[in-house]
Amino acid sequence: MTIRIPYPEVLETLKKLFLEHGFDAPNAEACAVLFAKASLEGVPSHGLERVTVFLDMVKNGLVNPKAKPTLSDQFGSFERWSGNLGPGPLNAQFCMDRAISLSKEFGIGLVAVRQTNHWMRAGNYGWQAADLGVIGICWTNTKPNMPAWGGSEPKLGNNPLVVGIPRKEGHIVLDMAMSQFSYGKMKQYLRDGRQMPYEGGFDSRGKLTKEPKEVISNELALPIGLWKGAGFSLVLDMLAALLSVGNAVHQIGETGSEYGLSQVFLCLDPGKLGFADSIDSVLGNIVNDFLSSETFTGNVIRYPGQNIPEIRAKNLAEGVPVEQGVWQGILDRL
Fold this sequence. Notes:
The chain is α+β, with helices and mostly antiparallel strands. It has twelve helices and 13 strands. The chain has helices at 7-20, 25-40, 51-59, 88-106, 123-131, 183-191, 212-218, 227-244, 249-253, 279-291, 308-318, 324-332, and strands at residues 2-5, 70-75, 78-82, 108-116, 135-140, 146-147, 154-156, 161-165, 172-176, 201-202, 208-209, 261-268, 320-323. A hairpin with a 6-residue loop joins strand 8 (161-165) and strand 9. The two termini are 22 Å apart.
């Protein structure tokens, strides 16, 4: 059963929870905001539903709540950091902030981080950049959870990619994994006892299936665009490992858990790069043409991120939706 909890109550509960698990006050608050914001904006699979998983990683020593990122190398507008196995969401927020700052100084800012952890809702960092008026692009690698095209074992990560583009009439924020469905979304379907609306991966015989349990147990998610998505995943992993001098997917897989990830954050400042005056008109024309598309009966056209402000406003007014069992599991950790 889905219940609704007032957003301030969600924040205070999470902040208290993180304080009790070794976070200092500023980091407990920042982490609470990132988890709560994900559910507030309609992504519970990487928000409140991940809180107890995250705390288990802290308990098991995979996430160090006291660790801070440290600078390893700097070359003009490029920085390389170590996350020191600190909290993934906080490391990602920090690295995007550094990329934003570099872009405002140089026009382009590039930050790579190694030895970090799962950043939870990837879209948070695209919104972070767009809200500050810069284009933000970021991606991460993961443990092996997707096959090479034609393969029968997980060799690739589903390596999420985010693109955030600022616009006065509503930011464009693409948040996507290289798999047709993220594993968090598949677990939602499994918990609800539902099939996925489209084939989301392979069963043990190599047949496409809509059954989330089959895909999750085999870790054989379907790459977006079939062989194209598999290739896209591969090069994102390569770039993350090269730029960060960190782990690649196959090395993460050798650990037995998903930690020690590599991530990249790229920002471009429209003002420094000379297109600030035209960004809204150019994007407005593209969006207007896009939304004018004729559709098959019953279909609705949306650009990436279009419905987030509406979802946010509704949940601020009515409370953050959360499965009763998920919320109780959070309360049980206090």
